[in-house]
Write the structure tokens for this entry.
Amino acid sequence: MKLFRWLKIVLSAALCAAAPATAAQPPSDSARLVAAEHLLKAMNYDLQMDRTIEAIIGEAEHSIGEGLNRQMDQPLPPEVVTKIKAIAETHLRTSFAKHRPNLRRGTALIYAKHFTVAELDRLAALQSDPVMVKMQAEIPQIMAETMALSQAMSTEGQDEMRKEVQAVVEDYLRNKGESPSS
């Protein structure tokens, strides 16, 4: 059913946006990892993650609310949409809670991979700059809005792509495995 495919895409995108790659290679020296952990502490990583999670959940609920009935032949009653939003929120919160330690560790590994100890120390020192403090407060909402923007742009042309893919599959099936025509 289109609805469940759409929900899966929205929820997957939300989770992926918030989940750093936990399979990141460890930095070449532990000093980088220690410096990265120091940076995470200086930037109030846990508070930032809480804000980011709230922004992602809010954006997912908004996306579900706007997009759900577009995927249906007839609109769902508001109480059903509300139940679906609650299910999505519960699953997102559960997933984030379950993976929170891995998110932090993965984020530290990513920072350690991309920055030297000196750079990480400098970044940690910059966290007290008033503009940086403001940026840290705003970044979760900025990221959620950016994610929504990129999702909206990525859906453009999907119907045309789907039609083209369907035509190739139908052509293949018509020809029973022979090479499809272009």
About this structure: The chain has seven helices and no strands. The CA atoms of residues 130 and 136 lie 10 Å apart. The two ends are 29 Å apart (CA to CA).
